[in-house]
Design goal:
about 350 residues, alpha/beta, seven-stranded mixed β-sheet, four-stranded antiparallel β-sheet, 12 helices, about 40% helix, about 15% strand, globular
């Protein structure tokens, strides 16, 4: 597989394994979503709604954001690429390590990218050095909160300072909130209440992780600038959200009980998994998301695969090397299996 597309969740080349490499909701896609997607097959003879009107109206109700400030795409990656093509940055800033698709999109456009390497000694927490790296020659800044792969979340006050710094320097801020739902108080961390105050800010969201809908490809974003959204639509392909994806998304937004219960269980299991790995001697970082970032032997992924467990080797993230890994928080029974395998390997 091409290095640029190396990622977790590659069950096609790692068959019959317990997959801890992909950090989607371990409790599976809700039945209501599956039924809605299946029922939508009766409409696939028609083009999908290019405006995603019903889906955006449902998102408006669920998120409390005006539908004219919402745009949908074929997964979050589609929106990242569309936004870069719309803004056309000449120079951008990324923290490192972070989600690879930001750099991919910037490279595709030919943008010069600079990196602010997060310090392991500081637990990969962003600080003043990242804010200071945002200069007047920066056109775009990407920031993932909680960050992927570290799971570290920046506090709300820091996010406000980040948005203000970008405004002062004239940089467009892309704030990825895809893993925010797994935080203890997700609404506290969201910047969606500041869309009007910061029109040159784009908030990225997706159905992928929260509803275990990775294969459907459905992302969405918020922006207070109608001009930016129109520019995105002008460079993105039309009909990029299928009939099946739109109907599945509408159904997912009704799954309030599923979300509440599964998020509570994931948070509980995360703490137990952190405790268990800590007792085994692994150095784990302070993840607040639905995955755990840690250090281990250089060949740990291979040893886990030999025992039917697939973990994410993070050595292809910029700023990391061999020996850094990420495991998703899965169900109680699956997490116990992971701990047993790790115990066998360590001993």
């Amino acid at each position: 597989m091409t290095e640029i597309h190396k990622h977790g969740g590659d069950i096609y080349r790692h068959k019959n394994v317990l997959d801890f490499s992909s950090n989607c909701n371990p409790y599976g896609t809700p039945d209501g979503v599956k039924k809605a997607g299946a029922a939508a097959m009766a409409q696939v003879c028609h083009y999908p709604d290019v405006e995603c009107e019903e889906l955006r109206r449902a998102l408006e109700k669920a998120e409390g954001v005006p539908m004219e400030s919402i745009i949908c795409g074929n997964g979050a990656a589609d929106l990242i690429f569309g936004l870069v093509l719309a803004v056309k940055p000449r120079k951008a800033l990324l923290p490192a390590p972070t989600f690879a698709e930001y750099e991919q999109a910037l490279n595709a456009w030919g943008c010069q990218t600079e990196y602010c390497f997060l310090s392991e000694e500081k637990g990969f927490c962003p600080g003043e050095e990242f804010l200071d790296a945002i200069r007047q020659d920066m056109d775009m800044v990407f920031f993932c909160n909680p960050n992927n792969p570290t799971g570290v979340a920046a506090e709300p006050e820091y996010l406000k300072r980040l948005a203000e710094r970008c405004r002062q320097m004239g940089a467009f801020l892309v704030l990825d909130e895809c893993f925010e739902d797994f935080l203890e108080e997700p609404e506290k961390y969201s910047m969606k209440g500041y869309l009007k105050a910061y029109p040159r800010m784009f908030l990225l969201k997706a159905f992928t992780k929260k509803y275990a809908m990775a294969g459907i490809r459905l992302g969405y974003g918020f922006c207070g600038s109608s001009e930016t959204l129109e520019q995105m639509k002008a460079v993105m392909q039309p009909w990029n959200v299928s009939v099946v994806a739109q109907e599945a998304g509408i159904a997912a937004l009704k799954e309030e009980t599923y979300v509440k219960e599964s998020m509570a269980k994931i948070r509980k299991e995360r703490e137990k998994l952190l405790e268990g790995m800590g007792k085994q001697g692994f150095f784990t970082f302070a993840s607040e998301a639905n995955y755990i970032f840690f250090k281990g032997p250089w060949n740990l992924q291979e040893k886990c695969l030999d025992k039917g467990i697939y973990i994410r080797d993070c050595s292809n993230y910029r700023g990391l090397k061999k020996g850094y890994y990420r495991v998703a928080v899965r169900t109680k029974e699956e997490n116990q299996k992971l701990l047993e395998v790790l115990d066998q390997i360590i001993k």
